[in-house]
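QA checklist item 7 of 12: single-chain prediction sanity check.
[x] sequence parsed
[x] length recorded as 374
[x] structure emitted
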Amino acid sequence: MKKIAVIGGGAAGMSVAVMLKKRGFSVLVLERGERLGRKLSATGNGQGNVTNTDMSKAHYFSDDNEKVARALARFGANDTVKFLESMGGIFLPDARGRVYPASRQASAITDLFRRELARTGVEIRTGAFVKGVSRKGEKFIIELEKGREEVDRVVLAAGGKAAENFGTDGNAYAIAKAFGHTVTPLSPVLVQLKCRADEVRGLRGIRVDGLVRVLRAGKEIYSGRGDILFTDNGVSGDAVFRASSYTEKGDTLLLDLLPDVSEERLTSLCAGEDSLLCVVNNGLARALCKRANGKNLAALIKRFPLTVEGTLGFMRAQATRGGVPLCETDESLQSKHCKGLYFAGEILNVDGECGGYNLQWAFTSAFLVAEGME
């Protein structure tokens, strides 16, 4: 019986371990942290947004989106729900197609995996930091801080560089590079955007359901609606997280703060701060009037500009843009440089929009690896 080492105990790592065990392999999961699934337990604001009913390659960024499309055709949103429900629980979509456990508790999804891993007899080793991996004949030698392991196959599912507090600091890229792989430029996505301080002064804590447009050199490159939360130094919220996948420093965010109300209706109403009672938040009304400076207040509500100065970085990001290129793997995500080395999850150059797309990639990539394992 071949022994497979899965490096990383996140969503992709736990999924591929369960799938490989069901195929009859001996599986060892090596997790550097003290618990499995810490990042999974926090996903979807702690509610567990695992996938989305609107699933297609259009929601992903990669060096090979056609390969992403083929992967999703083999294991998509319905397959993810069936896979998760085979371990227990009920998973349901909301009005926007985001799929959650009926309990709306992300930590319970991690508990499902832990129970299934224990039930099927997958060997779990936490606190196991992998220092390096090398090839010796037909075997792989995994060097740990304490001891070593000799295995037949390796699945590198140790995540990207986002959310270092969950143990994903980019260390796994060095392992890939040791086998001849390249790593595309890395950047944080699904992250709060920093804007000019004077543009958001006095707005901290105000939340609106608005429309976010991203403009570059006057051309619109993205538009999406959702929560917009003003912060000390910029904007956050799910609409901003989605927009962050498309933004660069110097871009303009054009916010429609009342997308369900026409500019004409606002024009007939807006004649100063008092006219905005029950129209927008009082604090927002004060800031708008100050910024409008006697000019068209309705136009400012419909087109509130912010200048992007950057992001809060990898520490606050939910995902990583970049990684090991898909073109360096086969259809089973096995390395083209080293037979027996596979990749799953965020370490690959695939990231999705906010809304369950990155977890879907974790499950899809796990399936490709498990089904293609020889």
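[x] summary fact logged: The mean pLDDT is 94.
[ ] second reviewer sign-off
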